[in-house]
Amino acid sequence: MLIPYPCPGCGQETGHRVLKEGAEVLVECSGCGHIHRIRFPEAAEIRVKAIVSDRDQSRVCEAELGEDEEVAVGDHLAALCGDEASGVEVTAIESGGKRVQRAPATSVETLWTRAIERVVVKVSVHRGRTTEPLRISCTGEQEFSVGGIATAGKTSFRISHMKLRDGHVVRREGKRAAAREITRVYGYRL
Questions:
Q1: Is 33 buried (19+), middle (13-18) or exposed (0-12) by CB count in 10 A?
Q2: Residue 157 phi/psi, 5° resolution?
Q3: pLDDT of amino acid 156
Q4: Which of 114, 112, 113 has its CA nearest to residue 55?
Q5: Across the chain, where does the E strand assignment appear?
Q6: What gap in Å lies between CA 67 and CA 12, rounded to an integer?
Q7: Phi/psi at 149 (nearest 5 deg)?
Q8: What are 47-78's pLDDT values in tens digits?
Q9: Reduced to 3 states, what is the DSSP secondary structure of residue 84?
Q10: pLDDT digits (tens, 9 = 90+) for 106-159
Q11: How crowded is residue 26: how many other Cβ atoms within 10 Å of its Cβ?
């Protein structure tokens, strides 16, 4: 890949081949072979309104994005709510008065997000003809696996399958999913 840039060796704006990336990029001029460093200006940060849903409540916060950045549904960001920062997942993007799947940061009006640091996983535990609805409060990164043993309160159960947020149902023994990806866990009481 060649980057057009003025060369201090030959004085011409030529294509430069990237030799090494970092804070400064080491490049070689394709015209004269001169090797030098280029420092690109960092993109400015912009603040975007972010609605953060956390269990049963929502609050208005902000997310910092790079001016040249693109944001998409499913991205993980940090939302700033006053002095507190919270890890969130983008669930919807409002841009140009409508909902879109992805947008450049400069055109984003509102990010709709959900907190993923602490989540509540809904559980349905079957025992014969009865089903007991339970909830497990855990970190968004905690993993659950089909066939594994889990505990909700005083109830221990074996996980039979899990429904994920993307609509898939995981039934294969040993398959894992992070709590933030799960809509509901199903199991049988031990």
A1: exposed
A2: -150, 160
A3: 95
A4: 114
A5: 2-6, 13-20, 25-29, 35-38, 45-54, 57-66, 70-72, 76-81, 84-95, 98-100, 102-104, 108-115, 118-127, 130-139, 143-145, 149-152, 155-164, 169-170, 176-178, 182-189
A6: 29
A7: -100, 135
A8: 999 999 987 899 999 998 888 889 999 999 98
A9: strand
A10: 999 999 999 988 888 999 999 988 999 999 999 889 999 999 999 998 999 999
A11: 15
* SS3 of residue 116 by DSSP: coil
Residue position matching structure tokens 């199991």: 187
Residue 86: Cβ within 10 Å count: 19
Bridge partners (DSSP) of residue 108 are 95
The CA distances from residue 165 to 146, 168, 178, 180, 183, in Å, are: 16, 7, 11, 8, 5
pLDDT at 48: 94
